[in-house]
Amino acid sequence: MQLEIRPDPAEVGRARRWARSRLAGSGIEADEPLAETLILLVSELVTNAVVHTGRPAVLRLFMPDAASAPTAGERAVGEVVATVRLEVVDASTRAPRPRCADGDDTNGRGLALVDGLADRWGWSAEGAGKRIWCEVDRCSSATTLATGCDAAPVVTPVASPVVYGDLAYEAV
Question: Looking at CB atoms within 10 Å, which of 59, 87, 131, 145 has the fewest?
Answer without folding.
Answer: 131
